[in-house]
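ok trying again, last paste got cut off:
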Amino acid sequence: MQTPKPRFSASLRPLAGCLVALATLAACGAEDPPPFQSVQDHPDGYWQDVRFPQGTGILDEESRRKLEQLANVGYATGYEAPRIETGVTIHLEELAQPGLNLYCSGHAPEAVLMDMQGKVLHRWSLPFDQVPSQRTPSMRTQLTWRKVHLLANGDLIVCYEGLGLARLDRNSKLLWYWDGASHHDFEVIGDRVFTLSREGSTLPYLETDQPIVEDAVCQ
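nice, full thing came through this time. structure:
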């Protein structure tokens, strides 16, 4: 008896990873999509039916320790000594888009709105220890904001890397917090927020006791 429900994914084609991630929306609470009934129902491109064995979703302490080690694997990096300069040093007005600039960096959990001359017009900031989260940061870089999105009323949606999403008002007061493993990116569409999230799991069909991290698109 076949229990897994059919899904669709690209086979050895570009964007396959993104499509597989979209197919795992069900892991975040969305209902399973109905199976396609005919070839006409298939999206454009080369597709084939595929079934995804479900992971256990349960990790013991040893598996959690291994996942934490995996998350701490560093990237090859390099840097150059910065110049001793501040403010806007080059401004080619004919090549630059006029207007305001929203800027966030890896230096702190904050975002800055500035004009084309570098004058700070507004600043948002909220340290992670002031957020009601059950998560414990494993890296210092998780305490900064990975991405921010400014709303028309001055509210700001921010991503703490691997630690969740938050919405602040224009005075940096916390309005809501989502305690999920959001990372790298999110997109605001209307009144909905889509983000990448991940969950540790073990997959028996891989025939290994090593845990893996599964990514999904969550709303």
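cool. The chain is about 10% helix and 30% strand. Residues 1-39 have pLDDT under 50 and may be disordered.
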